[in-house]
Design brief:
globular, single chain, Thiol Ester Dehydrase, Chain A, 2 helices, alpha+beta, binds coenzyme A, 161 residues
Length: 161
């Protein structure tokens, strides 16, 4: 199931037995897949274009997700560049019989909108509406700078492209 408003998309579903590892908790890789999927839906909705993942930054595993829990993955555009969309994702989980979710994961993920040939294409500009949106945009820009610095360090310091 998914819900969305202008700049965000929310996926809601139950964590299934096939999502779980040998320790009985949801696989980290499965959570990353959900994050990528919700972010793709958010980026495609915002840009109206096929979009590709550029980078995922600071994925934090705060609490485990258990089989049978109700999971929500909310992906929101919080900053845009020319072709890039910087998305804040928060994952929450709760017992479906109760109303008190906990935050299990958060991260920033960047998508780039592409034209028919796969080249970067301009996206609509995101404008923050609230003071919190403005702060989140600042944090997202900081995360982008960090990710680019990391790319640079691999290239400059290690000679890796
Ligand atoms: C995504 C890809 C096309 C970007 O190529 P690139 O040559 O690095 O592109 P650019 O340097 O022009 O950067 C494109 C945008 O990403 C941004 N960007 C680049 N590196 C970034 C990083 N590490 N973190 C966040 N944003 C980044 C740039 O600022 C630019 O945004 P802008 O247009 O808003 O200014 C290329 O890396 C690629 O094809 N990657 C594989 C994508 C993929 O297979 N994803 C998984 C399946 S969808």
């Amino acid at each position: 199931m998914s819900k969305h408003n202008d700049n965000s998309v929310e996926f809601c579903f139950l964590a299934e037995p096939t999502d779980v590892n040998f320790g009985g908790k949801v696989h980290g890789g499965m959570v990353m897949k959900w994050i990528d999927q919700a972010s793709y839906a958010c980026a495609a909705k915002w840009s109206k274009r096929y979009s590709v993942t550029v980078s995922a930054n600071g994925i934090r595993f705060i609490r485990p997700i258990l089989v049978g829990q109700m999971v929500s993955v909310t992906a929101s555009i919080v900053h845009t560049g020319r072709s890039s969309m910087h998305i804040y994702v928060v994952v929450r989980a709760r017992d479906p019989k109760e109303d008190s979710p906990v935050i299990t994961n958060r991260c920033f993920i960047t998508f780039m909108a592409t034209d028919e040939s796969g080249y970067p294409i301009k996206v609509p500009e995101f404008t923050p509406k609230t003071a919190e949106d403005e702060k989140l945009e600042q944090v997202a820009m900081h995360a982008k700078d960090f990710a680019k610095q990391l790319d640079n360090d691999f290239e400059e310091k290690l000679g890796w492209k």
